[in-house]
């Protein structure tokens, strides 16, 4: 088994599926010869050819729209939007077409495509490179919105996304691309979509997070564990459709929940989870649901980005508020 | 009122043309049009399209159909294009292309169901690979690019044919996809129905480009203009383009010059923004009378056959309208059952709720 970081795990999953399914094609800006600006597609064009690993002109609308056409015509395109800051020209195609092609044709035409995009703050990137717009996509019926939190999760979830018969938006946390390595068995085994993962079990409270923020969340859980407080830590992984049952089950046990995400607070996906807890788990709640999120501000440039991102201290403060609530 | 006027589709250079508005032959006809009798199916298809249009408008006006976009005056485009395509090609239409869809095998019942508010109308019983009509302007050009790429990747001799309006050529989707199609040399035909009006915006306000066809030059391939009111010219140009595409030649673009004789849709009132004289003058160039004049001149057609055809079309449409009106609405569960390949667990409670509150007596919809 190889020790891979997250970007290498993405590369391994893409390579595996290109090798095993002739319908899979990759397209995007600078993904071929250059191997992608983050090297997620490194070496794939050399290995699988320029017809299946396509360097596109610089046009995000056409990248997303062409992927829809390819998918409807029987291919399994995996399109890359270089950064989520540049995903908005593709939004029309995703919302108006990818998400509804199956529905509006009663299944006659389908859209088995993946739109990959590096996202999130914390790598001192230029302006428009640090946002977390997952809630925008999680709001759209017909889509899946998937975010891995580790190399092994990235490998298994990306394989599942490519094999899924419907469109999947797959956000890769740039902060985790090279943060740590993990043993990843390159055996082509997919992880389930539409399921949350309980990454740590405890009895006193529940943490819910996804993407890069799972690191700080686990750090906070470690500190609490040193104080004798044990927590369930849930990696949401698939935000849409949401596996609320796993979250409710945990909170039924713990009664206290802290949701952590780096996207802005208002209308962030944490609000959906909190609402679900209130609707279906009110009787088990022993404290108000806490949200630790990015602020409702423009993600600051590099010098302030770690002031924006939820910190271990902010997560701990929210956890203590939940734990101390009587 | 100072209204922008569009040039007559006759007074300007409208590109390649075989028949004059009066039905006179202007140049040697292409092989498929040598025998006038062989043109009867094209004539029939145009007459059927217009008769269908007229009935759909009447259904809308009497509350039996939703908003509808008429193709009045533009019948030669849909018929010319679709008659030159092969069955396993893929048509990506916009919302004024039921003429082309009918020839592709989409049924009148399906078209009526769609405009009547029922997605089952997009589940074509024939033309299974064709796209449903596209409402967001020019977004279908991107899909056509992808469809054509898939065909090229698999070394097929199929082609993708994308229809769009003059207004669509102002959109980024059009420019991005046309540019990418040129770079990738895909078997894609872009056919612009230049009917001179994008709702209230005349062609002159849409672009300062001398022609819309010339936009293809910037993407590295040729664009040509044809008289979109001459079905022989449209079909000949499309046939020629598709032959080139099947042989591996890159994308092609045809700008078919025509005129929107009707309103934009049933929700529009074109008298608000264009002069009645402009519309009435354009009637002399419309495509059906033109081909009929030619066929009558050659002796291949006559009054009796025309009346018979009109009756035949009316009966065919009657049957479709009856079947459409007799189709019950979809079951409420259909809102959920086609969204994903399998219903996600998260959606199951909402589906249950929809079924619980669904009532066959629900008359809110009238």
Radius of gyration of chain B: 21 Å
Distance between the termini of chain A: 48 Å
> Mean pLDDT of chain A, as a whole number?
97
Highest CATH level, the class of the largest domain in chain A:
Alpha Beta
Question: CATH superfamily of the largest domain in chain A, called what?
Answer: Thiamin diphosphate (ThDP)-binding fold, Pyr/PP domains
Look at the structure and name the CATH superfamily of the largest domain in chain B.
Thiamin diphosphate (ThDP)-binding fold, Pyr/PP domains
Molecular shape of chain B: globular
List the helices and strands and how they pair.
The complex is a heterodimer of chains A (326) and B (366).
Chain A: E1 2-4, H1 6-20, E2 24-28, H2 44-48, E3 53-55, H3 60-72, E4 76-80, H4 88-98, H5 101-104, E5 114-119, H6 134-138, E6 144-146, H7 151-163, E7 168-173, E8 182-184, E9 197-200, E10 205-209, H8 213-226, E11 231-235, E12 238-240, H9 244-254, E13 257-264, H10 269-281, E14 290-294, H11 305-308, H12 312-324
Parallel strand pairs in A: 2-3, 2-4, 4-5, 5-7, 6-7, 10-11, 10-13, 13-14
Antiparallel strand pairs in A: 1-8, 6-12, 9-11
Helix pairs in contact in A: 1-7, 3-4, 8-12, 9-10
Chain B: H1 40-61, H2 75-84, E1 90-92, H3 98-104, H4 108-115, H5 139-153, E2 160-165, H6 172-184, E3 188-194, E4 197-198, E5 201-202, H7 203-206, H8 215-218, E6 223-227, H9 231-246, E7 252-257, H10 276-282, H11 287-298, H12 303-325, H13 334-337, H14 348-357
Which key features would you list for this structure?
heterodimer; A: 326 residues; alpha/beta; Rossmann fold; 2 domains; seven-stranded mixed β-sheet; five-stranded mixed β-sheet; 12 helices; globular; B: 366 residues; five-stranded parallel β-sheet; two-stranded antiparallel ribbon
């Amino acid at each position: 088994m190889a020790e891979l970081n997250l970007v290498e795990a993405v590369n391994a999953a893409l390579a595996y599926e290109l090798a095993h399914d002739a319908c899979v094609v990759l397209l995007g800006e600078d993904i071929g010869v250059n191997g992608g600006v983050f090297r997620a597609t490194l070496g794939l064009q050399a290995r699988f050819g320029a017809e299946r690993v396509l360097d596109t002109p610089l046009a995000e609308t056409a990248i997303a729209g062409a992927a829809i056409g390819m998918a409807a015509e029987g291919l399994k395109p995996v399109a890359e939007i270089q950064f989520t800051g540049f995903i908005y020209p593709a939004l029309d195609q995703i919302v108006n077409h990818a998400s509804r092609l199956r529905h509006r044709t009663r299944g006659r035409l389908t859209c088995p495509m993946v739109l990959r995009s590096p996202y999130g703050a914390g790598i001192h990137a230029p302006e428009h490179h640090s946002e977390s717009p997952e809630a925008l996509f999680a709001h759209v019926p017909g889509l899946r919105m998937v975010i891995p939190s580790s190399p092994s999760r990235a490998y298994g979830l990306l394989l599942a996304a490519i094999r899924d018969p419907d469109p999947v938006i797959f956000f890769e946390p740039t902060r985790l691309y090279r943060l740590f390595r993990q043993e990843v068995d390159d055996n082509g085994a997919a992880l389930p979509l539409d399921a949350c993962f309980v990454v740590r079990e405890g009895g006193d409270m529940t943490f819910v997070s996804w993407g890069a923020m799972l690191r700080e969340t686990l750090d906070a859980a470690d500190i609490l564990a040193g104080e004798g407080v044990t927590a369930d830590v849930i990696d949401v992984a698939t935000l849409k459709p949401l596996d609320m049952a796993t979250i409710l089950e945990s909170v039924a046990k713990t009664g206290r929940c802290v949701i952590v995400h780096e996207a802005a607070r208002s209308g962030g996906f944490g609000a959906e989870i909190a609402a679900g807890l209130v609707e279906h788990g009110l009787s088990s709640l022993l404290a108000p649901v806490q949200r630790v999120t990015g602020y409702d501000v423009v993600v600051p440039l590099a010098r302030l980005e770690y002031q924006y991102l939820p910190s271990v201290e902010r997560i701990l403060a929210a956890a203590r508020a939940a734990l101390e609530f009587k | 009122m100072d209204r922008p006027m569009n040039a007559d589709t006759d007074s300007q250079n409208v590109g390649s043309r075989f028949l004059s508005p009066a039905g006179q032959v202007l140049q040697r006809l292409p092989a498929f049009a040598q025998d006038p009798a062989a043109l009867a199916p094209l004539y029939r298809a145009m007459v059927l399209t217009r008769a269908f249009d007229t009935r759909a408008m009447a259904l809308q006006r009497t509350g039996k159909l939703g908003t509808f976009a008429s193709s009045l005056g533009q019948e030669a485009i849909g018929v010319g294009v679709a008659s030159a395509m092969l069955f396993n090609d893929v048509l990506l239409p916009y919302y004024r292309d039921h003429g082309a869809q009918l020839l592709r095998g989409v049924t009148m019942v399906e078209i009526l169901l769609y405009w009547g508010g029922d997605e089952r109308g997009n589940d074509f019983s024939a033309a299974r690979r064709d796209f449903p009509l596209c409402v967001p302007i020019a977004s279908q050009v991107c899909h056509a690019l992808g469809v054509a790429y898939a065909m090229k990747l698999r070394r097929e001799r199929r082609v993708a044919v994308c229809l769009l309006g003059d207004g669509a050529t102002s959109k980024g989707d059009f420019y991005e996809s046309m540019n990418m199609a040129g770079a990738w040399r895909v078997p894609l035909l872009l056919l612009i129905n230049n009917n001179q009006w994008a709702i209230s915006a005349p062609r002159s306000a849409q672009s300062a480009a001398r022609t819309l066809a010339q936009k293809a030059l910037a993407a590295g391939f040729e664009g040509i203009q044809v008289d979109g009111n001459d079905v022989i010219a449209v079909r000949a140009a499309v046939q020629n383009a598709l032959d080139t595409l099947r042989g591996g030649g890159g994308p092609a673009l045809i700008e078919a010059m025509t005129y929107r004789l009707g309103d934009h849709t049933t929700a529009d009132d074109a008298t608000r923004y264009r002069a009645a004289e402009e519309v009435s003058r354009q009637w002399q160039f419309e495509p059906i009378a033109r081909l009929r004049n030619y066929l009558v001149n050659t002796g291949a057609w006559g009054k009796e056959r025309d009346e018979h055809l009109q009756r035949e079309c009316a009966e065919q449409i009657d049957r479709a309208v009856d079947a459409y009106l007799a189709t019950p609405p979809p079951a409420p569960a259909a809102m959920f059952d086609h969204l994903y390949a399998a219903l996600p667990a998260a959606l199951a409670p909402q589906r249950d709720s929809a079924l619980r509150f669904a009532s066959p007596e629900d008359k809110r919809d009238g």
